[in-house]
Design brief:
By secondary structure, this protein is mostly helical. The protein has two domains: about 40 residues, no CATH class; about 70 residues, no CATH class. It is about 65% helix and about 5% strand. It has a two-stranded antiparallel ribbon. The longest helix has about 35 residues.
Length: about 130
């Protein structure tokens, strides 16, 4: 079983399972479920978290769309012969899939990072 190290004393419930500062993944999961239950009791924090998650998801989708668009341009324009190499290989689907996943992760996380850096919290008087 995987051992997760953590400095939180609440997580080290059973020293025989995880001596030192290590804990089992199941104990960590139980701890996180307890914390989520405490968070569910405060509806204001959940509404704020949901709004921010929507904000991040919007930026993620925009970044993935840009990344896949650039990948399509990259493959169609055949820069460096990569398009020909991929489309003539026996594993075309896997190659395009791995490229799409890499471009989605790269451009999606970049767009989320830019969105967070540009994010300005609302002033107390204004609500949109």
């Amino acid at each position: 079983m995987a051992v997760i190290t953590h400095n939180n004393p609440e997580l080290n419930r059973d020293k025989s399972i995880a001596p030192g500062c290590g804990i089992h993944a199941l104990d960590f999961l139980i701890y996180m479920c307890d914390k989520m239950a405490q968070l569910n009791n405060n509806l204001g924090e959940i509404a704020q978290m949901t709004r921010f998650n929507k904000f991040l998801l919007t930026h993620l989708c925009k970044g993935v769309a840009v990344g896949w668009g650039l990948l399509a341009v990259f493959l169609i324009s055949n820069l460096g012969g990569v398009g020909t190499l991929i489309f003539k290989s026996s594993n075309t689907v896997m190659a395009v899939g791995l490229l799409a996943l890499g471009f989605a992760i790269t451009f999606g996380s970049c767009a989320m990072g830019l969105g967070v850096m540009k994010y300005l919290p609302e002033s107390k008087g204004k609500k949109t």
